[in-house]
Design goal:
Distance between the termini: 31 Å
Helix content: 40-55%
Number of strands: 10
Strand content: 15-25%
Strand order of the largest sheet: 2-3-8-5-7-6
Structural class: alpha+beta
Oligomer: single chain
């Protein structure tokens, strides 16, 4: 009960003060929290969509190589017995040239899969968005093409394409190294590299040489972050089974180390750059609190004279910082999450507002015979390879951002309040 006066005095200093610095500090923190949440959410959306495309379609969570074809079924069954292993997908791949009906040629990566792969690996099936046809490689004479690759070749479902291996002759009965396929599906992953340079065939297609060492096995995990644990369990299991001494196992974190490392570095530097907002706001709060201490020396002296301890007086100003920090961080959190969850609508509103101004300027410019006929887009499909702006919110990152906003004000008030505790009532009241 005796300490209630601290919160009372702190609230009066904020809401009844003469300065508008608390309002500016709250707005500064709210702006920083809002901007950081929205930018990190959009960055996560782009990064996680790329990571998902790479892991679910291309590299898998664990890759196994250097095993014979006749032992592939045994190897697959052994791995599926491990808890946490969701799917095991045999595949082959090679580099080739593909030619369309217009005579144009493109370099492609040809991936050989089983006809029921989309059922075994359902996440891969969901990440292949078919614009034409569907996942149909039941016939060895069918081929699936990426959307951008099909566009460059000028082919559609039902058209014929020609494959020519870059590494050598494709089939024993075709000395020219040429094979002909009919397009049964055109897919889009959202990852430009796959959409522009990938083709999928039946693993039993004549285009694949009977090379036992060419077979690979892709493993999907329930939780990809358990890859190290699964690798240890797989090594023990294969060692006990015997006959798999030369099998090479690679985790997704090792297979894509440079790419994922670059993404982590990019996010870290974005945190640091946007964190400068909190540094600037914190310095502003620090200076405002120091100024408040000087302006209220007489009031602080009176509080000390009527029994207020050094800690209690200092806590008044710390409460000011805590209130400012929490209010600003909470406002920024609410609006930041609202925008991040409705990012497409937010950017649409921004584009509409900008285009209205562009329209007005065009009308005015029309009197001088000039103007711009285009429209403004934040993420134009002509520049960015996206259909819509992705957004992904990670709870722990939101909590970190909120704490950044709160602590920037709290710590600034903590350091600024040190001078208030040193004020002696006798020195202040001597000349009053």
């Amino acid at each position: 009960m005796k300490k209630k006066w601290i919160l009372f005095v702190a609230s009066r200093y904020i809401f009844k003060g003469r300065s508008n610095s608390p309002v500016l500090s709250v707005l500064g923190i709210a702006t920083g929290v809002l901007a950081l949440i929205v930018i990190i959410a959009v960055m996560n959306g782009f990064q996680l969509s790329f990571i998902e495309s790479i892991l679910e379609i291309s590299s898998y969570h664990i890759r196994l190589e250097n095993f014979s074809v006749d032992k592939s079924d045994e190897l697959k069954n052994l791995l599926l017995e491990i808890p946490g292993v969701n799917a095991a997908v045999p595949f082959k791949e090679y580099q080739a040239l593909v030619r369309g009906r217009m005579g144009s040629q493109q370099a492609v990566l040809v991936r050989g899969l089983q006809e029921n792969t989309a059922e075994i690996d359902q996440k891969m099936g969901r990440n292949l968005d078919f614009e034409e046809g569907f996942f149909d490689i039941s016939n060895p004479g069918c081929i699936l093409l990426g959307a951008e690759l099909a566009r460059r070749l000028g082919v559609y479902v039902g058209d014929e394409v020609t494959l020519f291996s870059i590494t050598g002759v494709l089939s024993a009965d075709n000395e020219s190294g040429l094979d002909y396929y009919f397009v049964s599906g055109v897919f889009r992953t959202g990852y430009y590299e796959y959409d522009s340079s990938w083709a999928i065939l039946n693993i039993e297609s004549p285009s694949f040489l009977a090379n036992e060492s060419d077979m690979k096995l892709g493993i999907k995990l329930t939780n990809r972050f358990n890859d190290r644990i699964i690798l240890e369990q797989a090594e023990k299991k294969l060692l006990l089974a015997g006959g798999f001494d030369n099998v090479k196992m690679t985790s997704w974190s090792d297979y894509n180390r440079s790419f994922f490392g670059a993404l982590r570095t990019e996010k870290l530097f974005m945190f640091i750059l946007l964190g400068l907002i909190f540094l600037v706001v914190g310095l502003n709060i620090f200076q405002a609190q120091r100024r408040a201490v000087l302006q209220r020396r007489e009031e602080i002296g009176l509080l000390r004279a009527v029994g207020g301890t050094e800690k209690a007086v200092r806590f008044v100003f710390i409460c000011d910082g805590a209130i400012i920090g929490f209010t600003g961080a909470f406002i920024g959190l609410v609006f930041g999450l609202a925008i991040a969850f409705n990012i497409q609508g937010f950017f649409t509103i921004i584009e509409d507002i900008v285009n209205v101004f562009i329209g007005i300027m065009n009308i005015l410019a029309g009197f001088f015979g000039t103007g711009w006929t285009g429209s403004f887009a934040v993420f134009s499909p002509a520049i960015f390879y996206i259909k819509e702006i992705p957004s992904q919110i990670l709870p722990y990152e939101v909590l970190i951002i909120f704490m950044f906003g709160f602590l920037s004000a709290f710590l600034a008030a903590w350091f600024a309040s040190g001078k208030a505790a040193k004020i002696q009532p006798a020195q202040v009241l001597r000349y009053e």
